[in-house]
Amino acid sequence: MPERCGDVRRACVERLAELSESQRDEIDGVSRASLERPSAHERNPQVRLSCELRVEQWDRARVAGSARLLAVFDDERSPLRSISFQRRLQDVAEARREVRLAWDRYREAFGSPHEVWEQPDADEQTPLAPYTPLGAGWRWGDFGIRFRALRLSATAISYDETAEIPWPVRPDARLRPSSATR
After folding, report:
1. Helix 8-17 vs helix 29-36: crossing angle, to nearest 10
2. For the chain: N or C, fewer Cβ within 10 A?
3. Rounded to two decimals, what is the model's pTM?
4. Of the candidates 107, 108, 165, 161, which has an alpha carbon nearest to the alpha carbon of residue 134?
5. In this model, does residue 6 exceed pLDDT 60?
6. CB-based contacts of 138, cutoff 8 Å, min separation 6
7. Residue-wise pLDDT tens digits, 73-105
8. CB of 141 within 8 A of CB of 169?
9. Handedness of CA 179, 165, 51, 47 (dihedral sign)
């Protein structure tokens, strides 16, 4: 599974806190101010675990390569709020193949998508238009999932999948006992 994981938000805050006084004098005023007065972001109890992984070891058939998995929790005791799978591809055929695999998998699991940016076609060599997403999404009141490929330049295609519980829905809503009287 994941080769390396870490809480990216807390790691950044801890690195800033470990600076010596002489190192603090060398940093810009905004960064120095954030060391002396924690921002709302730094006081946020959210846990963001970022993991690098080989996709061959992941959840389903995918185009070979590496990716990043980001898991977000509201705090250390809360269930998962959001999870995203992200990778960069250089080849249009690989990106279209990845989208086709996701299209087949998610349609089987969730039915027809609620939103389609561009439906994948059988021809994997059809170029991707710049900054035009290829993919689909499903959204219900308490859950959403999407996947997309987006051409950023001639040699960079971003591919991501995200599943999340939107705000203000609590991720533990189904786990909490009902407070309603019967």
Report:
1. 100
2. C
3. 0.70
4. 161
5. yes
6. 106, 110, 113, 114, 115, 144, 145, 146
7. 888 888 888 999 999 998 888 888 889 989 999
8. yes
9. negative
